[in-house]
Amino acid sequence: MPKYGNLDLALTVKPNDQNRLRYIHLIKENLIVIVNKNNPLSKKKSIKFEDLRGQKFIFLADAFRMQDMLINNLHKAGIKPDVYYKSSHDLKLVYDLVELNKGIFIFVED
């Protein structure tokens, strides 16, 4: 139940509390890995989470639920992410850090 009033619908990422809520996929998005062109991953046509072992990561802040999903998938692949930087929302800074080869960034495809 919403804190203030009624709510019939919410557009969100997969909710944590799936026992009290029903969620239906509206769209499924592909994840992309943004890497420096000198990073060996840049030569691959496709990448699995297991391929990300040994990389430094640039994440969005914890407030973005996507980060939980990424970390869970990395853990399933046996990877404890080495986080170089967490950005609150500044994608320009994130891309600059990737360009400087400070880490890789995982995001949703447009």
From TrEMBL:
| Any one biological process term the GO annotation gives | regulation of DNA-templated transcription
Q: Which is a Pfam family this sequence falls into?
A: LysR_substrate
Checking Gene3D superfamilies in the record gives: 3.40.190.290
Q: Which InterPro entries match?
A: HTH-type_LysR_regulators, LysR_subst-bd
Output the superkingdom of the source species.
Bacteria
Q: Which GO terms describe its cellular component?
A: cytosol
Domain LysR substrate-binding intervals: 5-106
Query: What's the name of the protein?
Result: LysR substrate binding domain-containing protein
Native organism taxonomy: Bacteria, Bacillati, Bacillota, Tissierellia, Tissierellales
